[in-house]
Structures are given as structure tokens and as C-alpha cells.
Amino acid sequence: MDDTDGPTSPDPTLERALGRAWADDRPWELLTRLTALPHRMGGSPSERRAAELVGDSLEEAGLVDVRTDEFPMQHWQRGTTEFAVTDVDDETDAPADERSFEAIALPYCPPGDLEGPLVDVGYGTPEEIDDVDLQGGIAVASTTTPSDRRFVHRMEKFGHAAAAGAEAFVFANHVPGQLPPTGALKFDAEAAIPGVGVSAETHDWLVEYAKWDARARLRVDASTTDGTSRNVHGTLGPDTDEEVLVLAHYDAHDIAEGALDNGCGIATVAGAASILADLEDDLECRVRIAGVGCEEIGLLGAEALADQLELESVRAAVNVDGAGRFRNLKALSHASEPLAVLAEDVTDSAGQPIVHDRDPHPFSDHWPFLRAGVPSLQLHSEPADGGERGRGWGHTAADTRDKVEPRNLREHAMLTALLVRELTRSSVPRVPAAELRERFEDQNYVSGMRAAEVWPSTWE
């Protein structure tokens, strides 16, 4: 009987590697060790310890030439923050007493002591900011974005508010639970005006106080000094001129454990590294696996790694930022249709659901590589029910290990390894700068990227 059209014969090596992955507790153990640290803020001693843990994990997985590279950065340290409503229009029925609210400074917030009127700018979209007078005011913006438009990043909202003359920026969580959010105001440099995060519950009050023409006082103690961070990377597979790069950031903010963002991502990469080591003979080009520092404060580790590598030799970059958090893997192919097709083919063959997003964005570690034309795949995840738009527990004190399911780490490590294995066998076209720029223009991203100071100077 001719069985050429029948089912493909099982690959014993692949089956053994995936079978072992189901019993591999090392990704969970790495996540546990990382989240047990005091924090993993970029440039801190705790981030340095995290880099050591990642390096140990890569060596244990079987990578060779594992090395740690130091790079310079601006080290931001928080002090105290005081935020209070101080004055309400006497002609309103609003309570007139001074009232304090919990607030946390956002990374690269400068020290300051100021007062100004509270101005509600809604979601903080450019149109909403244009509709109000922000000169000398304290802008209050939600962390979310209307569902009928692309998600507007925090740095865009901050940049637009500062350009409109705001004296300070308040970033208000839309997720309840008394959870002030954090997140950098800009990349690797002290911001021009202070910015703080407040909870959804505080936001509800601030919107009311803004209607009552209230003023507020903000005092922030913080410092920005010269510092260093580290990238850890090694290789496996054949010694070829080209390579596939797999990276994930291991740093996190200093207010939480950073389990979801991005402890899950680096743990997923560690699991994938072990699988790929078992499949080393199946790889058709070198694979470089990297844990990078300082993503949260400017993609600084990824930028340093991009400067170090010969990018023309990087066949593709796989940025594992968000994978492992939730049930369903999400693939962002960043304007590369061949990458989108490859991801769908691999996950279909594995019988696993995948959520797909083809639009590019510049706010994760793929950006230094995508900007140079390297086809870039970001692996994220979302709940099976789709979940609420936005970060959820990310960038808050609720980003803790108890939110993580070990099975998600295992399954996403397997899928990551299968995708990387296929990338070593595939030739994916570069992403032309003109095409990438056009995609950003189609998304109305230009003014936002300019406001966030991430629009490439070569695109001017």
C-alpha cells in the first residue's frame, strides 16, 4: 500500500524532548528564585543577582559559551512620594479639606515639589489632551485606551501631556484593587516633568476633584545616576554564519515580584533552551539565547545586544515577552507575513490554539532588531476568554508568583522551541524600513512614537 499521503512518522528525538519537558521543573524553579529576590529593578544589585541566576540556568540547559556582558545605563532610584488635593473651588459643594492619596513615582521621574490644577484628560489620547487646557496643570490619564482604537502606550500619553504644558502627569490604573501602576516615563534618562501612578479607586476621586476645579500638590524624591546592567547569552546548534536570536528580559520593577512581567518569559526561554539542546542535531543554524536587562526602563539590554551582534547575520529574532503568563499563546509578527504564516503552521501542527496580531509596535525588546529589518516575532499570551484589555496585574504590586500556572510555562516552552527549530530551517525575508514605516503610519502611530521619543531618526 502506498502510504506517502498518510500521517507523518513520529520523530523519536522530538517526542523524547517534549516528553521530558513535561517533567522539567527547572523553568518553575528559575521563576521561583527570581521572584524570591527583593526586586529586579534595572541597574540594582538584585538585578545583578538575577542575571547570575539566568546564566546558571542557561548553562544547566546545555548552552555553550555562556557569557555576561555589562553595559552602561542610567540607574533610577525612588524615594518618597506625597500627593494631595489641596484646594477646591468654594462655589462648589465639594469637600474643602486637604486630602492625601497614595501615589508612586514612575521610573525616571525627576525630584520635584509643585502645585497645579487637576485636569482630567480621560484616556490620555492626543485628541483628549488637545481638548483641554493643560498649561501648568496636573494631567490625570487612565491606563487603558478605548476599544475602538489601537492601545496607546503610557510613554505616548506622558509625552503628549508634557508637550501640552503639563506640570506633572498622573497615570491612573483602570484595574481595581488599590494598585498604583508603575512604568517608565521615558527611556534611559530623567524625564522633563514628574509622573506618578495612582489606583483606580484614587482615579475615581481625582476625576471628581477635577470637576470641582481642585488643585493638587505633588512632592517626589528620586535620583538618577550613572549605573550598569548586564546581558547573559550563550549558543547551541551548529557553528553557522547565520543565527536565530531568542531573547527575554529578566528585569522587573521594584514594587513587585515581576512574576508575570517577565519572570514567565525568561522561565519559558529557559525551558525552551533545554528542549532545543535535546534537538540540537535537528537545528540547521546556530541559536543564540539571551536574557537581557533593563527592558522596563528603555529596552536597554536589547539595544546593547543589537549593537554587539552583526544584525545582517540574525535570521530572525524571537522576543519572549508575555509568554507563559496565561493559557493561550499570542504571536505578534510585527509586519512580517511569512513569520505569521510560520507561527500558525507550527502551532496548528502541534494542535495548539494561538492568538495572532500582525501589527508592529516599538515597546518591547524586539524593537532594536525590527528597526534594523530583522524579522521579529514576539511571543505573548492571553487568557482563554480574551481577558480585559491592558496589563492587568502587570506593573503593580499584584504581579506575584501565585498568578502563574506551571503548565503554561511548559506548554509555551515547547511551542517556543518548535517555532525556533522551524526558524533555523526557514529563510524569512527582511522587513524593509519603508514598509515598516508605512505600517506605523497606517496605525496612526507617528505622533505617539514622536511623543515617546522612539521614532527612528533615519525615518525623518
Explain what this protein looks like in three dimensions.
The chain has 460 residues and is α/β, with parallel strands linked by helices. It has 2 domains: 12-75 and 227-446, 3-Layer(aba) Sandwich (Aminopeptidase), CATH 3.40.630.10; 78-222, Glucose Oxidase, domain 1, CATH 3.50.30.30. The chain is 32% helix and 24% strand. The chain is built from 13 helices and 14 strands. The chain has helices spanning 12-22, 26-35, 45-61, 126-130, 154-163, 200-211, 259-278, 300-308, 337-349, 367-370, 406-424, 433-442, 446-451, and strands at 64-87, 99-101, 104-105, 112-120, 138-142, 168-172, 195-198, 215-236, 243-249, 286-292, 314-320, 328-332, 354-357, 376-382. Strands 1, 2, 3, 4, 5, 6, 7, 8, 9, 10, 11, 12, 13 and 14 form a 14-stranded mixed beta sheet that branches. α7 (259-278) links the parallel β9 and β10. α2 (26-35) packs antiparallel against α3. 52% of the residues are buried. The model is unreliable at 1-7 (pLDDT under 50).
